[in-house]
């Protein structure tokens, strides 16, 4: 296992922004940042092409799995892992979503996704549809003010 450099949450977000930039297209996004913007993992393609675990470079420590390093990055930065699909999307949180992130999620919910898979802080939806929490239940748990 390689040691990976850890940066503070602000610094690693700044570095991620410098490397990847932002997008308004959820198809290209890999994360929802604390300010509500999408981190672009598309490298100019029509959809996300980079693995979410690429953020491991901004985390130090030894991890058995790359996903553990990514989850540490989520805890350090407050970002939400995000994957957009034709009929729904995936959210993974390690911290309570910010108001800006909730607004972004609210905007996504207006597209009426059939499903939302969510895990982490604030995602205790109980009802499921095809193994995924019902979108309305997840949204109510994540962003009750909408």
Describe the protein.
The chain has 146 residues and is α+β, with helices and mostly antiparallel strands. It has one domain (9-142). The protein is built from four helices and eight strands. The protein has helices at residues 9-20, 66-77, 99-109, 135-142, and strands at 22-23, 29-32, 38-40, 80-85, 88-93, 115-120, 128-129, 132-133. A six-stranded mixed β-sheet has the order 1-3-2-4-5-6. A two-stranded antiparallel ribbon has the order 7-8. Strand 2 and strand 3 form a beta hairpin. It is globular, with a radius of gyration of 15 Å.
* Gross morphology: globular
Level of helix content?
Answer: 25-40%
Low-confidence stretches: 125-133
The secondary-structure element order is: HEEEHEEHEEEH
Structural class: alpha+beta
Q: How do the strands of the widest beta sheet line up side by side?
A: 1-3-2-4-5-6
Instruction: State the end-to-end distance.
Output: 43 Å
Largest sheet: 6 strands, mixed
């Amino acid at each position: 296992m390689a040691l990976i450099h850890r940066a503070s949450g602000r610094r690693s977000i700044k570095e991620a922004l410098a490397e990847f930039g932002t997008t308004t297209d959820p198809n290209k996004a890999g994360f929802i940042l604390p300010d509500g913007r999408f981190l672009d993992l598309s490298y100019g393609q029509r959809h996300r092409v980079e693995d979410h675990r690429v953020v491991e470079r901004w985390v130090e420590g030894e991890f058995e799995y790359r996903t553990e390093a990514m989850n540490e990055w989520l805890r350090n930065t407050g970002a939400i892992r995000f994957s957009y699909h034709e009929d729904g999307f995936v959210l993974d949180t390690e911290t309570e979503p910010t108001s800006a992130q909730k607004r972004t999620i609210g905007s996504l919910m207006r597209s009426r996704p059939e499903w939302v898979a969510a895990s982490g802080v604030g995602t205790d939806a109980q009802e499921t549809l095809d193994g995924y929490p019902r979108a309305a239940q997840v949204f109510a748990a994540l962003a009750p003010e909408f």
